[in-house]
Write a structure and sequence with these properties.
Elements lengths: L1 E4 L7 H11 L3 E3 L2 H10 L18 H17 L2 E5 L7
Parallel strand pairs: 1-3, 2-3
Helix pairs in contact: 2-3
Length: about 90
């Protein structure tokens, strides 16, 4: 099962995810922010881009990688908690 925690920036999604995971022994956290953090520090050419977008959610590679990250977490946990403020519905 995947549990998505969506909400405004800075509202405490990651804190809630950590507390929830601490209460559920079969849970793991898959945080898309970590992937974005790494990608924002790479030069744009390494991502196949001319320039870094202002939001890493606009990077197609980021969207693919967070799916792989969540699937990997699901291999070791029954419940995967994903704290993320999704701003683009498409």
């Amino acid at each position: 099962m995947f549990l998505l925690l969506n909400g405004s920036f800075g509202i405490g999604k990651t804190t809630a995810a950590r507390r929830l995971a601490g209460q559920l022994p079969a849970a793991a956290i898959s945080d898309p922010e970590v992937v974005g953090y790494i990608m924002r520090r790479l030069p744009a050419f390494m991502l196949g881009l001319r320039r870094q977008p202002s939001d890493y959610q606009d990077i197609a590679l980021w969207r693919r990688l967070i799916v792989h990250q969540a699937r990997w977490a699901r291999r070791r946990a029954e419940i995967v908690i994903v704290p993320m403020a999704f701003t683009n519905r498409s």
